[in-house]
Amino acid sequence: MALVLFDLDRTILSVNSAKLWISAEVRAGFLTRWQAIRAAAWIGTYHAGFTRLESLLEEAIATLEGASEAELVERTERFYAAEIAGTARPGALAALARHREAGDTIALLTSSSNYLCAPALRQFGIEHALCNRFEVVEGRFTGKGSGPICFGPGKVIHAKAFAEAHAADLAEAWFYTDSMSDRPMMEVVGHPVAVNPDPRLRRLALKRGWPVEDWGR
User: Fold this and answer.
1) Structure confidence at residue 217 as a pLDDT band (50, 70, 90)
2) Inter-axis angle of helices 69-79 and 17-28, to 10 degrees?
3) HSE-CB of 101 using CA atoms within 13 angstroms
4) Where do the domains of the chain lie?
5) How far is CA 56 from CA 51, 122, 158, 160, in A?
6) Percentage with pLDDT > 90 across the chain
7) Which end of the chain has less neighbouring CB within 10 Å, N or C?
8) What CA–CA distances, in Å, run from 135 to 6, 50, 160, 197, 210?
């Protein structure tokens, strides 16, 4: 039995849920178009390799200050059912089934929030989520994160803590992802797998001899 970690956006899912969430929040009036343009620009420059996503995540968390956690849960559940649930990659379902049959410990390792992860865990039958969480006091967000940002090197922090708690060895672990931003995590596991990778990760995977898989859409 091994520890198996899956990225969510564009790995298990064929879409980037953050982009779809921004559009949905604009339509519902929870984000202004200027906020959406700013967020889209951040995401675009990140994918082009010109910025780090931590700043965008911290800024997004800060905008929640004073908002109701219960309302966000409800909005996220509606959003997931309408726009995300039908986007799973066929190969992801096969990989999940294979590792489940082997008795492996399976967890999401994603920059998404615990609110988006909740319906994903139910849909895919996964027990654990290592993800971004927000500080809540008396049912309302403080605008601060809870724990280290789960992105880039931050994913390694989350994974190491989880592995230690479950008596697992990252040198024997699997990690599936599409993004070059996950290079730090891929370099600490024994079985890194590039899934429908972005161009930079594809080049690195071929150079390192890491498996490259196409999980379809």
Assistant:
1) confident
2) 110
3) 6
4) 3-213
5) 10, 27, 19, 24
6) 76
7) N
8) 24, 29, 22, 32, 37
pLDDT digits (tens, 9 = 90+) for 20-36: 988 888 787 776 555 55
Catalytic residue, candidates 7, 104, 169, 182: 7
Model confidence pLDDT, tens digit, residues 129-181: 999 999 999 999 999 999 999 999 999 999 999 999 999 999 999 999 999 99
Which CATH class, in words, describes the domain spanning 3-213? Answer: alpha beta
Is 7 among the residues known to form the active site?
Answer: yes
Helix pair angle (17-28, 33-47), 10° resolution: 170
Lookup: tokens for 55? 């700043």
How does pLDDT run across 39-90, given as a tens digit for each residue? 665 555 555 444 456 677 787 788 888 999 999 999 999 999 999 999 999 9
Phi and psi of 14, rounded to 5°? -90, 0
Helices and strands, number each (H, E), in the chain: 9, 8
Nearest to 185 by CA among 1, 54, 6, 15: 6
Catalytic, 214? Answer no
Predicted TM-score (pTM) of the model is: 0.91
- Please tell me the distance from the alpha carbon of residue 12 to that of residue 202, in angstroms, as a whole number: 17
CA dist 150 and 70 (Å) reads 23
